[in-house]
Task: structure prediction
Amino acid sequence: MRILGVGNAAREHAIAEKLSMSRHEPKIYWVGDYLNPGIDKICKSTKGDYALADPTSPTKVLEWATKWRVDFVFIGPEEPNFHGVPDVLRKNGVPCIGATRSASMIEMSKAALRRLQWKHDLRGKLLFKTFATAEQARETLEKYSDTLTWMQNVALKPARQAGGRGVKVIDDRQLYLHDEKQKFKTSHFGWLENYMKSYSDIEDKILIEENVWGPEYTLQCFTDGRNVIGMPLVQDNKNAHEFDIGTETGGMGSISGPKKTLPFITEEEYQESLEIVKGIVRAIQATTGEDYMGIVAGQMMLTEVEGPTIIEMYSRLGDPEALNVLAMLDSDLVDICLAILSRNLKESDVKFNQKATVVKALAPKGYPAPRNLATGHPILADEDQILKNDARLFWASAQRMEDGEIVTLGSRALEILAQARDHPSASAIVERAISQVKFKDGWGAFHRSDIGTAELIERRTELASRARNLYRQRRAKGTLSRRRDWLPKVGIIDPAKTLREEIAGLGD
Result:
């Protein structure tokens, strides 16, 4: 069997490793725009090959898939989906684990996701408004922010998936700071508009959402268009530094296990989250008329307003979240892929072990900005010693050069994973393994030592408990998901009702 993977990062390294472990003993082929040392090693050990090419180019990926006569393709990151790589592959008879461009719209356009949720009256949604220009956003903010509560406390986001950049959460409850926070909001609209100029594939540029709070978690699922099978929950830690301090990143590490839930999420909340993701899959299939085949994931938050709530959707495995679930997966990933492609996932035996899993990313100083400072640093990792310490290394934003040296490319250089009976034990294993990584030029690096510790998990548990108490009270009173605002000379209004009417008026 021959399998082609697409992408470059630690997620793709983990996918390549899991595919190579199959009972089918596949040859692993890969397309990426730089040479990931870990993936390259797997390709060579399985007698496959590695091509340096644009992973977002449908023609390039098809060219290599045809040349290598692969049995199917597994898409790692989101951008190949957005650029229609799965569409072109399937049109030319090459099976693909990956969402089509239309189906992946739930990730590419955050505005399209919100409209889909409101149009189909799906659970776990937030109030929102979208804008094509910063001026439109400023006008709306000036009109409503002094009267509509949800327009005061907001999350400002790029309306497109943009690698986690540009999100700002503004809590505008203090009257003496109101004017300053209004100024910051309007200035950030300009930043978002400028940042989004490089994306011409959607009309919406700026998204304003109501600000909610609670612990975040990710539910990743396999789907064949008919069946959706949930994986264990993963909690990613996006802030750069310990205890959620610092700039948001693509993810500095994550925890999962030892069961399908997390220590701060109940089984009931897991099932509610799964039903929410299933509802979105049904809705996007009804909208596009296409089967959704591959990976779908909900980045969620347990909120006081809705309980389990969608923050974003993914049309692929997360990074670093993929490392956690693939380490817990006891079933053959190739068998699961074949079941997806034959639309027989319901009969597939998908099993996960019950070990606690911790992942931590190591990044060169300069990440997440300015990344030019984090680029070009030679890195050494004693992978044999890391394995002896019961940990595993996955290469991320690091490239093997012609002389064999591995250098950083500006983002998280590598991710280290460990499994143990509990999270603190796994966290300690990763800490020992990270000491086996050095920068040859003495450049500084950082990671989050708190991920998986008892103290951080206790913080998450306390936050979840507060949110849970509030949303259960709302549910008992029949007010779950309800919002009310008051306007002068108008009285009480229902912003959710207004939004539903607006969405309905847009049609298809």
